[in-house]
Amino acid sequence: MENETELIRAFNEGKEEAYVRILKKFDKAILFYAGKFIKNQQEKEEIVLDVFAILFKKHSCFTSLLGIKSFLYVATRNACLNSLKKYKRAYKKYGEVIPIPDDLNIEDLGGDPFSGFLLNELKLKVESIVDSLPAECRKIFGMYYYDGKTTTKIANELGISKATVSTQLRIARKKLRPHLLDFLILLLIITIMSFLVN
């Protein structure tokens, strides 16, 4: 398996090799994250194993490693909080203070730091995809979304037609859309869970 696409395809097909690679890729980070909620080693290991078991049962539902990683964090967070005796009080006590990886620039979304984690993950993924775009497409994307310029102004500045600008923007959106969909689905899950525990 040489790349993410092949790994995801194999995982979707239920191949054991893909299961093992996914497990090895995320198990240490997820166990570390569970430790922010649960201090008992055996208990947090059981929670993480259960979360991976759920992931493997849903193997056909994922389209990217970002989707898998985000699911693991959301499911682990919820499982850990559910294991605490007083769920609501634990959520209020820990929900805003539990740290997540130091290399991420957390942004607050509705007081939930994990939503910020997902947003930061999405931004990193978007930046990676944008960087991989052809030079002209990347430049037009930046002028439109980052600089806020209209398609007409972009066309005039670059000496190209508006149709070309629109075509390049469509190419960029097509590459970004699957990853945006993953994030929106997970954000919806978080919103629903937050509503249920309040």
From TrEMBL:
One Gene Ontology molecular-function label: DNA binding
InterPro entries for the chain: RNA_pol_sigma-70-like, RNA_pol_sigma-70_dom, RNA_pol_sigma70_r4_t2, RNA_pol_sigma_r2, RNA_pol_sigma_r3/r4-like, WH-like_DNA-bd_sf
Superkingdom, natural source: Bacteria
Domain RNA polymerase sigma factor 70 region 4 type per the UniProt entry, residue ranges: 125-176
One GO BP annotation of this record: DNA-templated transcription initiation
Signal peptide interval: none
Protein name in the entry: RNA polymerase sigma factor 70 region 4 type 2 domain-containing protein
Organism whose genome encodes this protein: Niastella vici
Record lineage: Bacteria, Pseudomonadati, Bacteroidota, Chitinophagia, Chitinophagales
